[in-house]
Amino acid sequence: MTHAASDSRTDDPSTETGSKTPPPGNRFLTVLNDKAMRAPLLWSTVGRFPLYLVTLALVVFATSRGTGYGSAGLLLACYTLGGAVLAPVVARRVDVHGQTPLLLLTGVVHPLALIGLVWTAADARIPQLVCASVAGATIPPISGCVRSLWSALPSGREAAFSLEAVLSEVFVIGGPLLLSAVLFWGNPATALVLGGVLAGVGAIGFATTRASRDWRATETSSDLLGALRSPGLVRLLAVLVCAAVSMGVFNLVLPAFAEEHGSADSVGLIFGAWGVGGIFGGLWYGSRTREWPAERTFAIGLLILSAFTALPLLAWDNWSMGVALALGGVVIAPVTAVEYELVARTAPSGAVTEAFTWVITVNVVGTAVGAQLGGLLVGAYGTWAAFVAAVAALLVGAAVAFAVRHRFTAPAGTPEK
Questions:
Q1: Is the dihedral of CA 41, 163, 137, 133 positive or negative?
Q2: Bias regions of kind Basic and acidic residues — which residues (predicted)?
Q3: CATH number of the domain to which 170 belongs
Q4: Can you say whether the dihedral through the CA atoms of 90, 87, 164, 183 is positive or negative?
Q5: Domain boundary among 196, 217, 238
């Protein structure tokens, strides 16, 4: 597969000392002009856009049936755990059998499971939980697949992963907005079905692209550890657990802060400010050539993010909290982009998709732990204690990243990416 040339720092000799720096935005345009990746990028956007819509719609759907937040939480837990537990298994099958079969299978089963959930009677608790678990377990592995394609680019990976970081923020903002629009015209059941159909259409469309059909994993070992046989990846995941705990604390403490300082309805706008900051940060980072190695940039980025994460401690109302989060969001996307680069580097040969999926699983587990921690701290000491805990978790992650930064390497025998 032929890809357009890029001015990536590690692949383009024009970035050596004395050369001209490419104009801002040029690196993004180079990636977007890659004809082989246009269709996968389009379909991956369609398929991933409703991810947050479905998560929120599950809660709204359950409570609209009068089952209460306890039952809604159980339904969401089954959906989330289904994805967290089985996503690496599905991704490993992708690395073995190719992207097309698994994308087609999950692209059909996932929406059917959500439709089954909607059609299940309100008092049929077990069938509902089964449908939610199946829907979570069969979320199409689009993120891992498209990032595997990006990591296979001969050049331009840095800008491609920056674009991925920007899109992640777009999905965080766009999914809830789409849910609001659907609820305005329809109902929660419609939102769930629409989310499942969009994910399925995106997965099937992605599977039919030439880039996806031609993608082949390199020969891989059949050991049980899979991607986790890479010490570098395991070290990276340990750092990401700390970051995920911090994010989980924020997921809990921000609604509590919003309610204390006005109305809980403002929390959507607060999270939106966070995402907007991330979009600007990702665009800024992706339009520039990085001067430091990825592992050093990652460790320093986490340290800077820790400092910005402390800004909410200075907020006195919901508006100032929005500003604090927008500033912190500017740092999140660049750190995320470098994280993707390190995942691609440390992934064992033939297990790239699984490696990216383990990042999602670690995030789910870490945010769940962080949410529980945040709840305990808010209840016992107030929101300030939870914000301090979020900063502390990131500082631990930054310390670990600095300590092991020279060991973010691929396993022995893995070709240089």
A1: negative
A2: 1-12
A3: 1.20.1250.20
A4: positive
A5: 217
